[in-house]
Amino acid sequence: MLVRDLEKLLLASKATRQSIVEVERRTRRMIRIVQNEGTTEDLLTSFLDPASTATEVTSVLNLFEAARLQARRRIVRLAQSDGVSLTRLSKFWGISRQRVYRIAQDDGP
After folding, report:
1. Cα separations (Å) of 14 from 46, 68, 72?
2. Do the beta carbons of residue 5 and residue 74 sit within 8 Å?
3. How far apart are CA 60 and CA 19, in angstroms?
4. SS in 3 state form for the chain?
5. Radius of gyration from C-alpha coordinates of the chain
6. How far apart are CA 100 and CA 109, in angstroms?
7. How large is the average pLDDT for residues 66-92?
8. What does the alpha-carbon distance between residue 69 and residue 99 come to, in Å, rounded to a whole number?
């Protein structure tokens, strides 16, 4: 169902945005440390569990991409049944017609 896939994409987008905001917050903090002549040691000890933040960013980006692909897959199938060309979809998304064709051929859910 297209609405369900789009809702999943919306949730994935929100999670991605929240994760990116956390990266921005940490980056601003790092800038302040460096501007105040902080050392590398200051940078390394100023954040709790930075590895988990990096892992989270990768994870949410992967979830976003999976949700986006599923929504596109659903739209391609619906568009094909409505007689919309792959070229039209490729222009809509700003991707190649070959990429849309691969999405159309994908056997995902």
Report:
1. 27, 13, 18
2. yes
3. 7
4. CHHHHHHHHHHHHHHHHHHHHHHHHHHHHHHHHHHCCCCHHHHHHCCCCHHHHHHHHHHHHHHHHHHHHHHHHHHHHHHHHCCCCHHHHHHHHCCCHHHHHHHHHCCCC
5. 20
6. 16
7. 95
8. 11
Q: Among all chains, which residue has been given the structure tokens 């980006």?
A: 61
pLDDT of residue 109: 62
**Distance in angstroms (rounded) separating the CA atoms of residues 42 and 57:** 23
CA atoms within 13 A on the CB side of 104: 18
Q: Which pair of tokens denotes residue 14?
A: 């929100």
Over residues 3-45, the pLDDT tens digits come to: 999 999 999 999 999 999 999 999 999 999 999 999 999 988 8
- Say how far apart CA 69 and CA 78 lie, in whole Å: 14
